[in-house]
Design goal:
Layout lengths: L23 H10 L7 H13 L6 H12 L6 H6 L4 H4 L2 H14 L3 H10 L10 H16 L2 E3 H8 L3 H11 L2 E3 L2 E3 L8 H14 L2
Antiparallel strand pairs: 1-3, 2-3
Helix pairs in contact: 1-2, 2-11, 3-6, 6-7
Amino acid sequence: MSHVRVAIPKKGFERFEKYNPENLKSFEQLIEEQNGDTYCLKLNMHLLRMYNAYPQLVNLKITRLILLKALSKLPYQHFNFARKYLIWSQLIDDGIRVIIDMADLLENEDYEEFWMHYKQKATILPILDGFDEAIRKYICFKVGSTRTTVPCMEFKMKLAVDKEVLMKYITQLGWMINGNEVKVFPLMLNDSNDRDVIRGIICSDIR
């Protein structure tokens, strides 16, 4: 049966359509169409809550996509926020388990193992344009927040890039080469909008 595409109000979901299972396919389609400019944390979390309400309608492919998108938003806590909504049928899925393992490796700053794991399991993961770049930017953020210098070879391994690409990152970040080391500086983030969105979702949960 065909479904009518739902228009999502700019100021949030109207209550009458929030948990209507007839709208589920439309929400899933919107998530598949998301790109960097149209990424919507509120929509993604809402769909995970709908899967809680209708576990028989869980779409594992869409769940993997939501989680991978959330992971690409590090250092913001979108992934941890999404993870709390997962139910048993999602947690035992091989692809979702891989993404959770990837998140744990990033949290533990085991970046070389992360890239190895990601490469080995890529065939069961959704294709997400810009994911690799987003993770490398996150790693740069972490390096900048915890180190003042890092050996060039170590930094190259953390990012899993060749020397030419490494130099592009160093230049773009405004960092400097000093012998065999990279002199790094903290990278600033403006997360006020992110906090406001998450606060709004939490408030909708407790209504």
